[in-house]
Amino acid sequence: MKRNNPLTKEQQALVEKNLSLVYWVIMESIHVNETIYGFGYEDLYQEGCIWLCHAAATYDPACSQFPTYAKKIVRNGLLSYCRQMCLKQRRITYLAVGLHGELLADGEPVAQPDDFHAQLNMIETLDLLAWAEKKYQGVAKLGVKALELKLKGMSISDIAGLYHVPPPHVGAWISRAAQKLRKDRLFLSGLL
Q1: Given 3.40.50, 1.10.1740, 1.10.3290, 1.10.10, which CATH number is that of 9-90?
Q2: What is the tens place of the pLDDT at every residue in 69-105?
Q3: Quick check: pTM over 0.85?
Q4: What's the CA gap between 14 and 99, in Å, rounded?
Q5: Three-state DSSP class for 99?
């Protein structure tokens, strides 16, 4: 779905008045499954709200009542979203722990690196990130620092608490840093 201009006040009022419609579409038409990525209630509700905004932006009062129109748009949008998520699920490798504590990927044992090489790789990666952190400024620098902290075992929420910002800010920092690092030939050559 391409982005439209922001909603007008009237369209915003339509969305606010009909938010419960998203709940009912999910309950009537979609199978919520909290154990599958993207099929939890909150994910579905968020996606449904996006489609409700799309319905408000494209609504023509001469054609039908808004709830009738919006319900169809939200339902179709959520079904499309679910199809996309199912396609993504096919490409995901599922990890599990076997009966004897071994790591399994899609039911097959996964070769584990020895501790020495894993530690060495971690140290080299942290050194590379420390080098990159000195090179960048602003959001990219914060993102590199957040990547370092994640490698050291901190969660996004922990990092957000450290900087007194909401967790989505940290995710945005990391995303910006990753964009820069993917284009940084010196950094990439250090990973080889």
Answers
A1: 1.10.1740
A2: 999 999 999 999 988 888 777 666 555 666 666 556 6
A3: no
A4: 54
A5: coil
